């Protein structure tokens, strides 16, 4: 049964969950530094005439704290990236509109032709493991990169609302089922805009990208994607011809049980996030509709209402 959650997200009462608290410690954040930086950032936000003063569906201080985590606890980095977060709804309307896994055909195709699992257990150093692959026995013509892009932005929006529990991602790309037909499905214009703007709006840190089971067409894949990546990310890509070399970087126990690990299966992890995004549609619709640039008059009225309340 689908349960739709409609609430306002905020900082948990009492102590933070262990992984969320650990993430802050790893970034050098303290209660005092968080209060100081959030005060500065919320005031800065109020001074921006074209950015919203409040965020529907989430307490602004809590959201800003998580955005600070996503930006490596760097205040100036937040100020640089935050306008792009609000502009993204107009820069990438085909990604940021109607992100509903039950009704959006592109999202449905994305979910039904791929598997993307986020392993719940956080590894040492605050690293979170993500595993991605194309499903076997699904036609390449059904693959939807736009649907995957929608899913990724939903993941990021929910982490910003509920609490970020990691400092960086370790991405495992299992390429054993990749075919040339998948590459033909990528709209290059959308791909460029997504890598340029979405990654700035949601500046998730990527520690490593591990490619396992590389196919014969690996050089074609690399030629397509490498130019879109920053030089520092390209240097963090590692191709593994043998699974044993991959295990030198990621302990087997963290991998899904499909690979011999102790985590839930890849499809279980994938479907859990699909359901989570369905459950949190009210908030995600708020993000698309309200977390965007506004005109100056609307911001002035919002400020006056906040002052009078």
From TrEMBL:
Signal peptide: none annotated. One of its GO terms (cellular component) is membrane. GO terms for molecular function: phosphatidylinositol bisphosphate binding. Pfam families: CRAL_TRIO. It comes from the Eukaryota. Gene3D superfamilies: Alpha-tocopherol transfer (1.20.5.1200), CRAL-TRIO lipid binding domain (3.40.525.10). Transmembrane segments: none annotated. Residues 103-267 form the CRAL-TRIO domain. InterPro entries: CRAL-TRIO_dom, CRAL-TRIO_dom_sf. PANTHER family: ALPHA-TOCOPHEROL TRANSFER PROTEIN-RELATED, GH10083P-RELATED. This is CRAL-TRIO domain-containing protein.
């Amino acid at each position: 049964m689908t349960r739709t959650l409609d609430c306002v997200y905020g900082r948990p009462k009492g102590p933070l969950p262990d992984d969320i608290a650990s993430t802050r410690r790893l970034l050098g954040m303290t209660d005092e530094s968080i209060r100081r930086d959030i005060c500065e950032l919320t005031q800065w936000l109020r001074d921006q005439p074209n950015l919203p003063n409040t965020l529907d569906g989430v307490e602004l201080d809590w959201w800003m704290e998580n955005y600070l985590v996503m930006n490596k606890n760097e205040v100036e980095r937040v100020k640089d990236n935050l306008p792009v977060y609000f502009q993204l709804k107009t820069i990438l309307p085909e990604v940021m509109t109607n992100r509903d896994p039950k009704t959006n055909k592109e999202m449905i195709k994305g979910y039904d032709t791929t598997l993307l699992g986020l392993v719940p257990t956080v590894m040492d150093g605050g690293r979170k493991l993500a595993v991605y692959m194309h499903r076997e026995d699904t036609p390449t013509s059904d693959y939807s990169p736009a649907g995957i892009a929608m899913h990724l932005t939903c993941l990021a929006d929910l982490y910003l609302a509920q609490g970020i529990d990691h400092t960086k991602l370790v991405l495992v790309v299992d390429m054993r089922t990749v075919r040339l037909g998948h590459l033909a499905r990528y709209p290059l214009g959308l791909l460029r805009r997504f890598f340029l703007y979405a990654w700035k709006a949601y500046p998730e840190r990527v520690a490593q990208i591990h490619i396992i089971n590389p196919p014969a067409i690996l050089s074609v894949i690399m030629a397509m994607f490498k130019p879109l990546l920053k030089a520092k990310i390209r240097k963090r890509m590692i191709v593994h011809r043998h699974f044993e070399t991959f295990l030198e970087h990621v302990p087997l126990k963290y991998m899904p049980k499909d690979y011999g690990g102790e985590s839930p299966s890849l499809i279980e992890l994938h479907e859990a996030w699909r359901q989570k995004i369905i459950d949190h549609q009210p908030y995600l619709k708020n993000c698309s509709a309200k977390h965007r640039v506004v005109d100056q008059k609307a911001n002035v009225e919002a400020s006056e209402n906040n002052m009078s309340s």
